[in-house]
Write a structure and sequence with these properties.
Mean pLDDT: 87
CATH topology of the largest domain: D-Maltodextrin-Binding Protein, domain 2
Helix content: 25-40%
Number of domains: 3
Family: Belongs to the LysR transcriptional regulatory family.
Order of helices and strands: HHHEEHEHEEEEHEEEEHEHEEH
Oligomer: single chain
Strand content: 15-25%
Largest sheet: 5 strands, mixed
Low-confidence stretches: none
Structural class: alpha/beta
Organism: Devosia neptuniae
InterPro entries: LysR-type_TF_proteobact-type (IPR058163), LysR_HTH_N (IPR000847), LysR_subst-bd (IPR005119), WH-like_DNA-bd_sf (IPR036388), WH_DNA-bd_sf (IPR036390)
Number of helices: 9
Shape: elongated
Protein name: LysR family transcriptional regulator
Keywords: DNA-binding, Plasmid, Transcription, Transcription regulation
CATH superfamily of the largest domain: Periplasmic binding protein-like II
Radius of gyration: 23 Å
CATH architecture of the largest domain: 3-Layer(aba) Sandwich
Distance between the termini: 45 Å
CATH class of the largest domain: Alpha Beta
């Protein structure tokens, strides 16, 4: 029994199958299968029941999983202690939002890589909510308001946005004075979404409607500049347009509730050292409030 076999078992147990675990580990499915076979042979018990839909833990596998995860986490921590300057090794696969990721997070990931020359960072930029387990990610950076899920999230900093429109749009269609008046306006959206606004101590939710949609926030900026509708967009995408007068803030008396930047990881009691370092790195940059 060795650490690679234990790590492989934990990945398969958490991912629910050999294919997803192999993707997370960056090895072939045959290597994963051989490691599992050696581990089960060494223990003399069957840990996983292979099925056409993946791999399910046996009773022995359920009992063994948490112990194996604890050992893997302790070994990772021990390695980190003896590495020079707390260096990191291995691969970190992280999902990053496309709209703001290249400008807001890519420089930080590059800086992390610079500080840890033996760390392999694989960043995937997309605004869709990826399945971290099935697609083999160690974690994701997500912004805004988190949906309910079984994932574990750590807030690493604040995230600000505002409602904006072009002066031409306002001149033609007028400016809504309350959130409920948005129903009479064209909204620029990334999908079927809910906009939230603060009205004193109350949160007002609105279901916007519009004819222009894009699955990327950056792609909505030109539509807002063209006067097609009103958009809720991150400050980092629109502040320079607001400063120039090309866009104007809308409903400033009803600011959106505080949103956040989060590091999200698959469920499990023991986060990897790499994910912990990334989380601490982002907290240091953004601050918790």
């Amino acid at each position: 029994m060795d650490i690679e076999e234990l790590q492989t078992f934990v990945e398969v147990a958490d991912a629910g199958g050999i294919t997803s675990a192999a993707r997370r580990l960056g090895v072939s499915k045959s290597i994963v299968s051989r490691r599992l076979a050696r581990l089960e042979t060494g223990l003399g018990v069957q840990l996983l029941a292979r099925t056409t839909r993946g791999a399910a833990l046996t009773e022995a596998g359920i009992a063994f999983r948490d112990h194996a995860a604890r050992v893997v986490a302790e070994i990772e921590t021990a390695k980190a202690v003896i590495l020079p300057n707390g260096d990191l090794k291995g691969r970190l696969r992280v999902s990053v939002p496309l709209s703001v990721g290249p400008t807001e997070f890519a420089p930080l990931l590059a800086n992390l890589a610079k500080h840890h020359p033996h760390l392999h960072i694989h960043a995937s930029y997309s605004d869709r909510f990826v399945d971290l387990i099935a697609e083999g990610f160690d974690c994701a950076i997500r912004v805004g308001y988190l949906q309910d899920s079984n994932l574990i999230a750590r807030r690493v900093g604040p995230f600000y946005g505002k409602l904006v429109a072009s002066p031409d749009y306002v001149a033609i269609h007028g400016e809504p004075q309350t959130p409920h008046e948005l129903s009479a306006h064209e909204a620029l959206m990334q999908g079927t979404e809910t906009w939230q606004f603060s009205d004193g101590d109350q949160v007002v939710s609105v279901q916007p409607q519009g004819r222009f949609k894009a699955d990327n926030g950056s792609a909505l900026v030109p539509a807002a500049l063209a006067g097609i509708g009103i958009a809720w967009l991150p400050d980092c995408l629109v502040d320079h347009h607001v400063a120039s007068g090309a866009l104007i803030p809308i409903l400033v008396g009803f600011p959106p509730p505080a949103a956040g930047i989060y590091v999200v990881r698959p469920p499990g009691q023991f986060p990897t050292h790499k994910v912990r370092v990334l989380t601490e790195f982002l907290i240091e940059h953004f601050g918790t409030e």
